[in-house]
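Consider the record:
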Amino acid sequence: MRRLLPLLLMFALPALALSADELFDRVAQVLDQGAWEARLQGRIVTPNGDAQEADLIVKTLPAEQIVRIEFQKPDALADNYVVITPEKVYNYLFLTNQVVVYPRAKARIEGLGFDLSRMGDLRKLGEQGEVVWGAPESVTFQKRKAWHLVGRSSDPDGAGFARVEVWIDREEERPLRIAFSGAEGQVFSDLVWTTFQRARFAKGELVIFPPDAEWIEKR
């Protein structure tokens, strides 16, 4: 029996292994259960390459595939917000009272040196071959049991980043931190999910803009 036990454990261990795809599927199932709101804090880069303190409120309506990102910091983006839909990305600029619209495929968030809309495409990035994910590693993040994944871009120039790291809560199976960086190690975005809660949103509450705003369509 003593000899048999190590053999049983050896064959059982592979069954415990979890792939990146399986983990992202679990996270998607959790996040897609209903509308939610999260606060993300950390650092992001501006178009001139400066890293600045970031404080964002993210509101999501999974059934409609709609995400709204409201900026608290950096100061230059305070009161700006972005609405991401399956077809388009809408940038509302508070100081100029303008809505700048991009096709989803050419998404850009005004005032940033990195496209934050890619945060919601982690599973899709792997499916489309843009990112090659390593196996999840069991770690501790802020005293919580977590999974840590590292992905490397197959085309850093085209993707706009070379490396992406994700920390996922092992119990709640939701993101805890997401960081994007360049080939030289420069950080483009490093955001920690400081709060997460279920919410009730209607589409009209997320896709809404000042009636007197000027609209600018990009192609």
Notes: The CA atoms of residues 166 and 182 lie 15 Å apart.
